[in-house]
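Thread title: Can someone regenerate the structure for this chain?

I was given the following input by a collaborator and told the matching structure tokens would be attached. They weren't. Posting the sequence so someone can regenerate them.
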Amino acid sequence: MHDTGSDLDPITGFLNRIAGLSAASRAVARAESTGDGLAVLWLDIDRFRQINQSFGHVGGDRVIAEVAKRLRQTLSADCLLLRMGSDEFVALMPSLQRQTATEVCQRLLAAIESPLAIDDLLMHPSVSMGIAVHAAGEDPLSLLERADRAMIEAKRRGGKRLIVSGDEPVAGRLGVQLARDELAIEADLHKALESGCLALEYQPLVALDGRIEAVEALMRCDLPGRRLMPGKFIPVAEKTGLIVRLGEWSLLQGAQFAARLRDEGVATRVAINVSRAQLNSRSFTPALQAALICANVAPALIELEFTESLFLDLSEIVQGNLRSARLAGVGMAIDDFGYGYSCLANLKDLPANKLKLDRSFIKVLPADRRAYAVVKAMAMLGRELGMTVVAEGVETAEQQAAVEGAAVDAVQGYFHARPMPEEAMLAWLKEKSTHAL
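Best answer:
Regenerated them for you:
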């Protein structure tokens, strides 16, 4: 039976959502009857909201059409392509098992990232992908659900990547338990915001000569009788938008702690993490200015930590917030550098004064000589660019010696101190200050 025109999405020519669900049912029925494999790819364009904000819906439609074209050109002709939502696509790939499907999708990731001219700008689109391979007896909706959950995990990890269903940390085969857990965590976060269950702990960044380079503020959520771990509540906060409120709270608390350290005679920069959602909010600049004013603290005592991708987001709101932060005079650090798709070519253009090397390089030291070579090269490059280079995740004396040999400027990790509450951090800094005299 041929698809009618009303079944097709007008921009991509793919099956629309309703027709696509029927097609998925037929594809699963065929796979069940023949015993052939069936892989489902669920794909979502990264930062599509920013694309619409930057280029308008006409520009957004052009990106949709081009991604659809690259899907069609890269996947085999027997794949059935569906448009499931604004910037979400599904590909039904018959006769494919996990390994082959993964290889095909890795090629697709690269194809989609080819430069794309929109107006006068050459952009590099990227996507988050999830794959699920049909299991015997599995119904179509369950199969699609698994692919969707894998895609969501890819996006949670920063996008521009592929996750295969079964590799993502999902509780419950169909994500049902995950959905319930997220709702419970969201409710916990609302309670924490209303009842004062949030707190910041601080971990020092120690220069090689023993000076304290800064202290990083790390959010904690202590509910009655239990601690909600950051790895659980931060992703939910990002997904629900609560991260903006949490981030504004962190800015104010961190600024007030910086003022207290100054007043106690141990003035130290306080580093505060900033999320993508915060930087995409028009409330970010007023919140930063309010924190500095309310705490009566000099901007030089505050440092904002961003991932590299945030600096490279070209949307008007993000760039405006970055400009405002620079004008305010706060420090800026690139966090987790080297994780994912960090790009050396971008470093020269980033308005940051600190480079924090991801702990994945440090945890394999000193045994991994290749990782050591990367750390040493990055330390030299960072210094040439006028940046302070910090090794994150230093936990042993051997790792400390290795990063000293690589000539980083400062280290952060359990070897020097674990994250600690405000009072303990203050006492620790005063003790260090006394010993330094």
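The first strand starts at residue 38 and ends at 45.
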